[in-house]
C-alpha cells in the first residue's frame, strides 16, 4: 500500500510551483526530498499536509484518495507536518504547546494534570523533561524546533512530514531525532524528510526523490548515489564535493588586525580573548548553548561596551550600530527575527544597512540580487514572497555588499539548499581572500570542516561552558576532533589541539 502522488501540479499565477510531480512511498519508509530553494519540495509537502490546494492530480494513501482541505483535516487523518515556520505559541508553556491540537479537558476547563502527563511522555523520549514548564519564548531556537517535533509526535502520525526543522538542531538533537524516526519506521509510519544536510539524509533516509523546477526528476535508494551525484542531479550540472585543504598558515604568520582581550560570555559569567587575522575564517563549534552566540554577540556590541584593538588603534564599541560603522557585519540564521524586514520589499531589504547605517547609496539592487542567485520577479516585491532560502540570500547580499572588515555569522546557512550553501561558503572565502575576516558559528560540524578548508588561514574554536575548550588548526580540523572537544573536559580548558596533534592521538 503506502502513499502515491500522481501528476500533482500547482500554479501561483504564471509561476509553476509543482509540475506533474509523481512519487510512491511504502509504509515504514523514510523518503528524503532533495532540491534547491524554489524546487517545489515544500509546496508538495504543504499540498499533502492540507496547507494549500493542488490544481491537478491525485494523492492516494493505502488505496484511498485523500484531498485535505486544511491542516486540521489532515491531522484528523494522522497526516502531520512540521516545518521551519514554527506553529508554536511563545506565551504558552512547552507542555501546553505540545497538547494544543487536542487539549485534554475536565468539564469545560483544560485538564492540567492530563496535559502534563501527555506531554511528559513524549518529552522523556526526547530528553527534554527539564523544559516542560518553560514558556516557548524562553527557549533556544533548537529547543523550539524540538518542541515543534514533539507536538507532531504526540498526534500519533501515520504520515510525518519533516520540512527543514533539523536545520536548527545541534548534533545531540539530531541523534535523538534519528532514534525517533527509527521507532516510527517500526510502527509503519511514512516519513517525508526535507533537509539540506546531506549527512542526515544518508543516516536517516531509505530513499531520495530529486526535485527541480517543480518536477520530480527521479527516485533512488539512498546508498545508490554519492553526494556528488545527488547534487549534480539536483542542480543539473556536474558537482564535485571533494575538497582539498589549503596549505595552512601557522599562528606566527597570521596578520593579526583585531585583538579582543575581554569578550564577555554572560550566559556563564566568563570572559574569553581572541585575536583575529586578516584573511582568516574562524569556525565556532560546540554543543548548543555553551557560549558560541554570546561570543559573537559580544563582539557585535549586543551586551554593551567592548574594548578592542583594531589596526593597532584602541577602540570601543557600545552597540551594534557602532559595530557596523567600524566595518563589522552580522548574519543570523534566524532570518525572521534578526534578518529580514518582512513588510518591506527586496530593494529596501538590500539597502537597509548600507543606506540607513553607512549612508552609502546602492545604485544597482538587481546586481546584488543576481550575484547571489536570488530567484525573484522584481526588486519591488515583498521579501516574504520569496522562499526561505532566497530570503536568506537577500540578507547575505545586503551585508556582503558593505564589504565588511569582520563578518560575524551565526548559523547563516540554516534553511539554504546545498548548492546555495556551497556558493555562500565561496563568498566567505572570497571575502577572506580580500583581507577581511569571518567568524562563523555552525550547528553542523561538517560545514565548519568544509568552509575552513577553503582558505589558507583558518581555525575552529570549540566552546564548552563559556570557555574555548579547544583550538583546531590544519589537519586537526575534523568532525571527530570537533565532537571530542565539545564534550566535558575535566583536565583544563583552552587546550590547543593543533599543538598536541589532534584529539585522536
From TrEMBL:
Pfam families, per the entry: ABC_tran
Cited SMART domains: AAA
InterPro entries xrefs: AAA+_ATPase (IPR003593), ABC_carbohydrate_import_ATPase (IPR050107), ABC_transporter-like_ATP-bd (IPR003439), ABC_transporter-like_CS (IPR017871), P-loop_NTPase (IPR027417)
Keyword Ribosomal protein included in the entry's annotation: no
Top enzyme class: hydrolase
EC number: 3.6.3.17
One annotated GO molecular function: ATP hydrolysis activity
Protein's UniProt name: ABC-type sugar transport system, ATPase component
The organism's taxonomic lineage, starting at the top: Bacteria, Bacillati, Bacillota, Clostridia, Lachnospirales
